[in-house]
């Protein structure tokens, strides 16, 4: 694929991602994306035949980028509590501080209308997060894998719930209050 095609695909995905974050799966059309990228709608369809193909590609790319940024949870030189705080801080910086909902939260809200490929890519993203968090929590108690899995679920629910609460109330302090119990080494 030529650089121009790769660049066009990236621009299309960038715009689609932003529009999904701003309004959900139903909030954009290929025409909207084409206009913003400066191409014809048919060109968007050339790269992504359906809206589902585009949204799935956005989620796959998002997961790949996210995965590359995660530190190795088994790296003994890294403190597990520091990794959890980094995860919280990264989420806060990307989502809460920008007064956004996360891409995965917005797609989850539209789960009932998502094509299967998008739902699968969304589930894969959550699985990456849960697996990484489980490995981090296992650093506190290596013999308690089932407990680490439960803590991962609770942590992720608290993180996303806190961001929803901030958006609903317009009170950014709620994020830190909701996450405070996860910020200290208590496990």
UniProtKB/TrEMBL annotation:
Fetch the Pfam families from UniProt.
TetR_N (PF00440)
Among its keywords, does the record have Transcription regulation? Answer: yes
GO MF annotation: an example: DNA-binding transcription factor activity
Q: Which residues form the HTH tetR-type domain?
A: 6-66
Key words, A-Z: DNA-binding, Transcription, Transcription regulation
Q: Which domain of life is it from?
A: Bacteria
Q: Which residues bind DNA?
A: 29-48
- Its protein name is TetR/AcrR family transcriptional regulator
Instruction: Say which species the protein is native to.
Output: Marinomonas transparens
